[in-house]
Amino acid sequence: MAVSDLTQLLASMDPVLRAEPYVFTTGDRLPECPVVVCVVEDEGITAVVSQADADRLGLAYEFVAAMITLRVFSDLQAVGLTAAVASGLAEDAISCNVVAGFHHDHFFVGWDDRDRALEILRGLAQRKQASAC
Fold first, then answer.
1. 30 to each of 6, 20, 54, 100, 131, how far by Cα in Å?
2. Is 73:1 a contact under the CB 8 Å cutoff?
3. What is the tens place of the pLDDT at every residue in 4-54?
């Protein structure tokens, strides 16, 4: 069942870091490889794909990212999760790009910031767990 209470969301977010780097690429059609995220904008299609696939296909990109998935089943109408996570990362000067799926929220941070970002999110979850007791 989807969770909407912010304290419960943060306490149980259980962040996991995907092992491979991802990139944001854009064009007038989807690339012929597995796409993790697709956003259709007036200017074109943004696709998030593995860096390995982008390199293999010769796709242009500027930002190499790590993908962190919050394994809590978050309600799409929940208030504050994105803001709390983004604020926690911003306090350590880590930018993030957020994508909400039906079941989970996914945060893309700079590849070099991945370990620090994961540590920050785990710390945030632990603090909420402790305060909930």
1. 35, 20, 12, 20, 45
2. yes
3. 988 999 999 999 999 999 999 999 999 999 999 999 999 999 999 999 999
Residue among 83, 131, 125 at smallest CA distance from 107 = 83
How far is 82 from 58, CA to CA, in rounded Å?
33
Phi, psi dihedral angles at 45 (to 5 degrees) = -105, 125
| Cα angle 59-39-65, degrees, rounded to a multiple of 5 | 55
- Label the pairing between strands 96-100 and 15-17: unpaired
DSSP three-state, residue 101: coil
Q: Which two tokens stand for residue 60?
A: 């242009």
pTM score: 0.93
| Strand, helix or coil for residue 103 | coil
